TrEMBL record:
GO terms for molecular function: 4-alpha-glucanotransferase activity. InterPro entries: GH, Glyco_hydro_77. The keyword Glycosyltransferase applies. NCBIfam families: malQ, PRK14508.1-1, PRK14508.1-3. It comes from the Bacteria. GO terms for biological process: carbohydrate metabolic process. This is 4-alpha-glucanotransferase. Its EC number is 2.4.1.25. Belongs to the disproportionating enzyme family. It comes from Streptococcus henryi. It catalyses: Transfers a segment of a (1->4)-alpha-D-glucan to a new position in an acceptor, which may be glucose or a (1->4)-alpha-D-glucan. Keywords: Carbohydrate metabolism, Glycosyltransferase, Transferase.
Length: 508
């Protein structure tokens, strides 16, 4: 990672546009231009994988396949797979500041089906798909999983009506493959669209000196192609139902703890394979990202294991994770990688030691640090080191305005004094100024905070279902004043991207 750099956290879904959700189209390229204009180095996003129950990018049908909601229709039309009349008169976004996932799930599919038909009818379509399949060795299993899942009314894997298919009996697999070949091809082609558009956008960002920070959830969903095809890697019963599930123990934020529902890995089985799936997964991640944030890093030192049938996280127990052995293997196979460890939450000595052993930068959250008016928090800036990535908050935290509104009078007074907030200075600007002034090598600002958005612009409230992941910005939100402020603090605190200067020097 660059020394003294900065960037913006903004998921693709939150970009403005007319397709009901942010896509890889013009608004995404405009966002790269904005990052360049303001001298940023990084664009951080959330997982690009498919979303399932609850619309969360951290609950995916696949650890690798992409979210086809992000495919841009205008780009498909430019390639001749659609005409504008196929989509321009459709109302994908009754509220342009919020994603209606149910609506876009229903409305985008017919348009994508037309694009798939256009692609397969083109002279080069079949060859392009065949070439893509050679590169994407995961594609066949994923496309079949999604086609079969749709055939059973989008039920979770464990609820499919054909037990023989759940168990992947060869004769039954062949039967469904023949019956659902068109749907399987739909999922293959839409994955081709996804990766072609995303890699073109990433190339544009890289060509302009912007690196992409991706996000890898530690767990996969119980309703996933991995559980279907590789059940030996998880603690499952004979029906592929999780014997144990993931979550967090009760704490000051929740009396019940957090029940995530993801199946727990059988780490002994992973170790016997020299962590081959993890090496593969991380390698795939670096095909589409420049840096990789690994979510819930503590889960690799030890994790909270909850009985699979429980409806509360209370009865879980701490179990040991793979620890340093996993990351030593990854390093031996893939070399030194720019990984960021999401080390938030309950971090004990064991988790701290793993972070030290790997030397990955961890994360610091300014909002957390300012809650303790005694100044003793590990997240307060005077306790930072340079090898951290600093945020005011992440997608799981309140936006600055909502956070500040909920502080006590004592906490507000402490915050104002600590960050040396000036008279009449907006709290979002004071907090971002304090963030960029920290000793941390990298500072990342959430887009909602740069735009001075209110509390309802929050992206996610952990341990709640529904109403999350919906926020979108409007194009007019990003004013010249907002850009000027970001550019100013980036230069003032020596975080300016030197890429443009380097390019000019190379021309001489």
């Amino acid at each position: 990672m660059e020394k003294r750099a900065s960037g913006v956290l903004m998921h693709i879904t939150s970009l403005p546009g007319s397709f009901g959700i942010g896509t890889f189209g013009k608004s995404a390229y405009d966002f790269v231009d904005f990052l360049v204009e303001t001298d940023q180095s990084y664009w951080q996003i959330l997982p690009l994988t498919t979303t399932s129950y609850g619309d969360s990018p951290y609950q995916s049908f696949s650890a690798v396949a992409g979210n086809t909601h992000l495919i841009d229709f205008d780009l498909l039309a430019k390639e001749g797979y659609l005409t504008e009349t196929d989509y321009v008169n459709l109302n994908f976004a009754p509220n342009p500041e919020s994603v209606d996932y149910e609506l876009i799930f229903e409305m985008r599919r017919p348009v994508l089906e037309k694009a798939v038909a256009g692609f397969l009818a083109s002279k080069s379509g079949l060859k392009k798909l065949a070439d893509f399949e050679k590169e994407a060795d995961w594609l066949r299993d994923f496309a079949e999983f999604m086609a079969f899942k749709e055939h059973f009314g989008n039920k979770a894997l464990q609820e499919w009506d054909d037990v023989a298919l759940i168990q992947r009996e060869p004769e039954v697999l062949d039967k469904y493959r023949k019956e659902l070949v068109d749907v399987i091809n739909y999922h293959k082609v839409t994955q081709y669209f996804f990766f072609k558009q995303w890699l073109a956008l990433k190339a544009y960002a890289n060509e302009n000196g912007i690196e992409i920070i991706g996000d890898m959830p530690i767990y996969v969903s119980a309703d996933s192609v991995e559980v279907w095809t590789m059940p030996e890697l998880f603690k499952l019963d004979e029906d592929k139902k999780p014997i144990y599930i993931a979550g967090c123990p009760p704490d000051s934020f929740s009396d019940e703890g957090q029940l995530w529902g993801n199946p727990i890995y059988d780490w002994d089985a992973h170790e016997k394979t020299s962590f081959a799936w993890w090496v593969y997964r991380i390698r795939e991640g670096f095909k589409i990202y420049d840096l990789l944030r690994i979510d819930h890093f503590k889960g690799f030192s030890d994790f909270w294991e909850i009985p699979g049938e429980d409806t509360s996280a209370k009865n879980g127990e701490w179990q040991s994770g793979p620890g340093r052995a996993l990351f030593d293997t990854v390093k031996a196979e893939l070399g030194d990688l720019p990984i960021i460890a999401e080390n938030l939450g309950y971090i004990d000595e064991k988790a701290e030691q793993l972070l030290t052993d790997t030397a990955f930068p961890g994360m610091k959250i300014l909002e957390f640090g300012l809650l303790d008016t005694e100044g003793q928090s590990i997240d307060i800036p005077h306790n930072y080191t340079s090898n951290v990535v600093a945020y005011t908050g992440t997608h799981d935290n309140e936006v600055i305005n909502g956070w500040y509104e909920n502080l006590t009078a004592e906490q507000k007074a402490f915050t104002d004094a600590y960050i040396r907030r000036q008279k009449d200075e907006p709290i979002n600007e004071a907090m971002l100024r304090a963030l960029f002034a920290t000793v941390s090598d990298v500072a990342i600002v959430c887009m909602q905070d740069l735009l001075d958005k209110p509390a309802d612009a929050r992206m996610n409230i952990p341990n709640t279902l529904g109403g999350n992941w919906q926020w979108r910005m409007l194009a007019e939100d990003l004013t010249a004043k907002r850009k000027a402020f970001l550019k100013e603090i980036t230069a003032l605190y020596a975080r300016k991207n030197t890429f443009k200067k380097s390019k000019e020097e190379l021309k001489k």
